[in-house]
Amino acid sequence: MKLKKVAKNAAYEINNLISAKLTDKDLDEVTGIIAKAMEQAVNKTSDRNIELCMEHVNPDTDMAHQIQKDIKRKQDALITNLSSLR
Q: I want to staple 75 with a disulfide (CB 3.0 to 4.6 A). Which of 30, 43, 46, 60 is the partner?
C-alpha cells in the first residue's frame, strides 16, 4: 500500500471523527488512527524490503538471514514506539 493511500484513509477517518473541537478522547482516537496508518505503512514497506532482499540473495545464505533479522528487529522497535503513542 502506498503511503499516499494510507494517509488519505487516515485523513478520511479523521475528517469523519472531527466535530467542532477535539476532546481528549477524540484526540486519543485520532492519534490511534495515525499510529495504525503508520504501522501499516511500516509493515508493508518492511515486507517488501525483505522480499527484495530474498530475490537478490540466496535465502540459504547467512547474509540474507542476517538482513531479514535486522529488518525485523528494527520494525519491531518502530512498532513498539508507535504503539506507545496510543
A: 46
* Runs of H (alpha helix) within 1-86: 3-17, 24-56, 62-83
- How many angstroms separate the Cα of 22 from the Cα of each of 9, 10, 15, 17, 34? 19, 16, 11, 9, 15
In a 13 Å sphere around the CA of 57, the CA atoms on its Cβ side amount to 16
pTM of the model: 0.52
Residue boundaries of the structural domains of the chain: 3-83
Q: If you average pLDDT over residues 12-27, what whole number do you get?
A: 77
CB of 55 closer than 8 Å to CB of 47: no
Mean pLDDT of 10-36: 78
